[in-house]
Design a protein that fits this description.
Blueprint lengths: L10 E5 L2 E5 L9 H6 L6 H17 L4 H13 L10 E2 L3 E6 L8 E6 L5 E6 H8 L5 E7 L5 E7 L6 E7 L10 E4 L4 E2 L5 E7 L5 E8 L8 E5 L6 E6 L5 E7 L4 E7 L8 E4 L7 E6 L2 E6 L7 E5 L8 E4 L6 E7 L3 E8 L2 E8 L5 E3 L9 E6 L8 E7 L6 E6 L5 E6 L11 E9 L5 E9 L9 E5 L17 H4 L3 E6 L9 H5 L7 H16 L8 E6 L1 H12 L4 E7 L5 H6 L10 H4 L6 H10 L12 E7 L8 H13 L6 E6 L10 H18 L4
Parallel strand pairs: 33-34, 33-35, 35-36, 36-37, 37-38
Antiparallel strand pairs: 1-2, 3-4, 4-5, 5-6, 7-8, 8-9, 9-10, 11-12, 12-13, 13-14, 15-16, 16-17, 17-18, 19-20, 20-21, 21-22, 23-24, 24-25, 25-26, 27-28, 28-29, 29-30, 31-32, 32-34
C-alpha cells in the first residue's frame, strides 16, 4: 500500500536568534480550538491525510484482526460486566452504581434507608441513545443535598467542554437552562437553590466560578470569583464538615485558596494565604479546626492545624519527613486517616483524635501493593471505613474495617470471571542506577514460567511529569501480555513524586532530561540483568509519557523493538511557544517558557522530539491520537509521523491512527476503551512475532 505523504510547505521559524525549518506547521489551524468543538471546520486536506494514515494503519494491522478480537474477549472476560459498587449511605438514601453485561456506561441507583424500593436515577446507555451521539463523555454526576435533584455534565465531542444539566428526580424533567462550556464539575449549595460551576474561557481554561440560581436564566448567573492570571485555573469544593466552600486557584506548582460560609446570601470569598511561587497549600475544615496541607518550609509537605482562619496560628500536626510525601486527611468524628508515600509505595495511618495515638494500618505480607480508604457514609459519627488493597498480581479487595475493634470483613473482591491465580505471577521491586547515581525504583510483573535468560520481550512503561506517581496497582488487562511471556515493568522515573517533591523537581524544567536518562538507564539495567535483551524492549507511554517515548527513541533507538505512544506530546517546542493553547501558560513551571526565556528555549529545543528526528533507523512505532483532543493537539503526532516518514532509514512499521470522534482519553464507553487496548497489545504481539 502507498505510504501516506503529508505535503511539505516550508516555514522558517525564529526565536532567540535561532532559526529552524518546519515543513509541516501549516496543518495547525488558527481556529484550532473551534475545530476541536466542531470537526467540520478541519482543513479538508488535513482530514484527507489523517484518513489516509488511518487506512495505511488498518492495512498493516489487518493481520492482527483475529488477535485483536481474541484480546478484546480476553480483556472483557476478566471484567465482571454486571457489577455493583459498594453502597454509600447518605442521611435518607443509600447510593451506588452498577454496570450491566450489555451496557457501556454506569447506572446510578438509590434505595431509601429501611426500604427495599430501588430507584434508577441515571442510566448512561439510555442517555447516550437519546442524544444519538457517537462520543459520550460523562463529567460529573451529583445529587442535591435534599435528594430531590440530579445534576450531570456531558461532553459529546471529546473536547472536554462539558454541558451541565439539572433534572428533578421524581419527574425526570429538566428544571433549569443547560449551562454550556463548563469544566464539568457541579456543586449544589446546601439549601439546593443554587449550583456552583466553573466556566471555560476561550483558551479552555477554567478561571471563573459562577453561582447559578436554579430555574433562572444563565445570563443572570453571578460571578463569585475570577482568576486574573492565565497560568492559573480554579475549582470549588465543600469542606469535610460542610461548613465552608473552598475555592482553589493554582498552576502545577503554586496555589492560593479562598473560602466563604455555606449559608452566605451573597458569597464573598476571603483569601486564606497569599500565593507564593512554588508554595502549594490546601486547607480543610473539621471539628472546629482548620488543617493545612502544605509544602511551605516542608519540601515533601506537612500538615498544620489552626483554630481560626481569621487570625490563623498554624501549629504542627503532621511534621515533614525527608523524601516521604505526606498526603492529605480523611476525617471522622473520632479519627483522622492520612497517607504517606516513599520509594513508590503508599502507607496509611490512623490517628485517634481523643488520645492522639497514631498507628499504621497493616494490609498484607506483599512488599508491593496499593492501599486505599473511603467512607461508608456521609455521617462522620462512625468507626467504620472501607479499606481497599491491590497489588500488581492481586486483584482489588475491599474490607469494612472497624477502627476500634480492628475487625476486618471482606465486603467486595474484584471478580475475574475468566479466572485468575495470583500465585502464577511474580512481582519484584528493584532499583537501578541512573546516570547521576540516583536510584530508580522499578516494579516488575512477570509470569512465573517466563525465563530470565534474556529471551523474553519486555514492555517498559513510563510517564515522569507533573509530579504524577505511577501506582503499582492491579491491572487485569496487562495479563494478556504477561501471560504471553512479555514482562511488564513500570519505571518510577523522575518527574513523578514517588520519592517526594525532589523527585519531581529533578525531572522538570532544565532537569527534564533526567526523566529520559532514568528511563534509558532502566532499559539498559533490565538488559544487563537478563530480564530481556537489546531490541526486545517495547517502550510505552501516553501524553507526557509520549514526550518521553519521543525523546528516548531519538536518543537510543537501538534499544527498542517497538514504541507505542498515545496522544503524545511530541511537538513540545511549538506548543510551548504558543501561549494561546489551553495548557501552555499553566505549564511554564513544568517545562519552562521558551518564548520569553532563552535558557528554556535552548533546553527544550535540544530534546523536543519533533525537532530532534534524525536520519537513522527507528524501531516499529504505533502512534495514536484523537481529533478532538485539546490537551495534546492531533497535529503534534501528525507532524511527528510525517517528519519521521521523511527521515527514517529503515523499513520498520510506522503507523498513525487518529480517532475522528474522541478526545484526550480516547474512545468513550467500556468497549471503546477495551478496543484501544486490544489494538496496542495486538501491535506488540505482531512485532514480537507472537501471533
Amino acid at each position: 500500500m502507498k505510504i501516506p505523504q503529508l505535503k511539505k510547505k516550508s516555514e522558517i521559524k525564529k526565536c532567540h536568534n535561532v532559526s529552524w525549518e518546519d515543513n509541516y506547521s501549516w496543518i495547525h489551524q488558527k481556529d484550532i480550538l473551534e475545530v476541536l468543538k466542531d470537526s467540520k471546520k478541519l482543513n479538508p486536506e488535513v482530514r484527507k491525510y489523517l484518513e489516509e494514515e488511518n487506512s495505511y494503519a488498518q492495512f498493516h494491522l489487518s493481520d492482527t484482526k483475529k488477535i485483536q478480537k481474541v484480546l478484546f474477549n480476553e480483556i472483557k472476560g476478566r471484567i465482571k460486566l454486571d457489577d455493583e459498587s459498594l453502597p454509600y449511605k447518605d442521611y435518607n438514601y443509600e447510593y451506588w452504581e452498577k454496570t450491566t453485561k450489555e451496557g457501556n456506561y454506569s447506572i446510578k441507583l438509590r434505595k431509601k434507608i429501611n426500604t427495599n424500593i430501588v430507584e434508577e436515577i441515571w442510566n448512561g446507555d439510555k442517555e447516550k441513545e437519546k442524544l444519538n451521539v457517537e462520543y459520550f463523555g460523562v463529567g460529573d454526576l451529583s445529587v442535591s443535598f435534599n435528594d430531590k435533584l440530579f445534576g450531570y455534565s456531558l461532553d459529546t465531542k471529546g473536547s472536554e467542554y462539558y454541558t451541565i444539566h439539572i433534572r428533578d428526580i421524581k419527574t425526570n424533567k429538566l428544571i433549569t437552562e443547560k449551562i454550556q462550556d463548563t469544566s464539568g464539575s457541579i456543586n449544589f449549595s446546601l439549601d439546593d437553590k443554587y449550583i456552583f460551576y466553573s466556566k471555560l474561557d476561550s483558551n479552555h481554561r477554567p478561571r471563573k466560578i459562577y453561582r447559578h440560581r436554579l430555574g433562572t436564566k444563565t445570563k443572570d448567573d453571578e460571578l463569585i470569583f475570577e482568576e486574573k492570571s492565565k497560568a492559573f485555573t480554579v475549582s470549588l469544593n465543600l469542606s469535610s464538615d460542610e461548613k465552608y466552600f473552598f475555592i482553589t486557584t493554582s498552576d502545577h506548582n503554586t496555589s492560593e485558596q479562598y473560602y466563604f460560609k455555606i449559608n452566605e446570601k451573597k458569597p464573598k470569598p476571603i483569601l486564606i494565604q497569599k500565593r507564593e511561587r512554588g508554595i502549594l497549600y490546601s486547607v480543610n475544615s473539621w471539628n472546629g479546626k482548620f488543617y493545612n496541607h502544605t509544602n511551605k518550609s516542608a519540601e515533601d509537605f506537612k500538615i498544620d492545624s489552626s483554630e481560626s482562619l481569621d487570625k490563623p496560628n498554624w501549629k504542627p500536626f503532621v511534621p515533614a519527613k525527608a523524601e516521604v510525601l505526606i498526603g492529605g486527611c480523611t476525617f471522622l468524628k473520632n479519627w483522622i486517616i492520612r497517607s504517606e508515600t516513599s520509594n513508590a509505595l503508599d502507607k496509611l495511618f490512623v490517628r485517634n483524635i481523643k488520645t492522639e495515638k497514631e498507628e499504621e494500618l497493616e494490609f498484607s505480607n506483599e512488599t508491593v501493593y496499593v492501599p486505599g480508604v473511603s467512607l461508608t457514609q456521609r455521617d462522620k459519627n462512625t468507626d467504620e471505613i472501607y479499606l481497599a488493597y491491590s497489588s500488581p498480581k492481586t486483584q482489588s479487595r475491599v474490607y469494612k474495617y472497624n477502627l476500634i475493634t480492628k475487625e476486618k470483613k471482606l465486603v467486595k473482591e474484584q471478580e475475574i470471571p475468566s479466572g485468575h491465580n495470583p500465585d502464577n505471577y511474580i512481582v519484584e521491586r528493584i532499583e537501578c542506577n541512573s546516570h547521576d547515581g540516583r536510584m530508580i525504583p522499578l516494579t516488575i510483573t512477570r509470569h512465573k514460567n517466563t525465563k530470565l535468560d534474556g529471551s523474553a520481550n519486555l514492555l517498559l512503561y513510563g510517564y515522569g511529569s507533573y509530579g504524577s506517581s505511577m501506582s503499582p496497582s492491579f491491572s487485569s488487562t496487562r495479563l494478556s501480555l504477561i501471560n504471553r511471556n512479555i514482562i511488564w515493568v513500570t519505571a518510577h522515573i523522575r518527574g513523578g513524586m514517588e520519592r517526594g517533591m525532589r523527585w519531581w523537581k529533578e525531572g522538570k524544567l532544565t532537569n527534564k532530561k533526567n526523566t529520559f536518562e532514568d528511563y534509558i538507564a532502566a532499559a539498559k539495567f533490565l538488559i544487563k540483568k537478563k530480564y530481556t535483551s537489546k531490541n526486545k524492549i517495547i517502550g510505552m507511554g501516553g501524553s507526557a509519557g509520549g514526550l518521553l517515548m519521543g525523546a528516548v527513541v531519538n536518543q537510543m533507538p537501538e534499544l527498542f523493538l517497538g514504541i507505542i505512544m498515545a496522544v503524545p506530546f511530541v511537538d513540545s517546542l511549538t506548543t510551548n511557544l504558543d501561549h494561546s493553547l489551553p495548557l501552555t501558560v499553566g505549564e511554564f513551571d513544568e517545562f519552562g517558557n521558551a518564548k520569553d526565556n532563552k535558557e528554556h528555549f535552548d533546553y527544550i529545543y535540544s530534546y523536543a522530539p519533533y525537532n530532534n528526528i534524525k536520519k537513522m533507523d527507528y524501531p516499529h512505532m504505533l502512534i495514536t491520537t484523537s481529533l478532538s483532543d485539546n490537551r495534546v493537539l492531533f497535529d503534534e503526532p501528525a507532524k511527528f509521523t510525517a517528519k519521521l516518514r521523511e527521515y527514517k532509514t529503515d523499513n520498520n512499521l510506522l503507523l498513525l491512527k487518529t480517532e475522528m470522534n474522541a478526545g484526550h482519553g480516547g474512545k468513550s464507553g467500556r468497549d471503546g476503551a477495551i478496543e484501544e487496548i486490544a489494538l496496542d497489545y495486538a501491535f506488540a504481539l505482531k512485532i514480537t512475532k507472537k501471533i
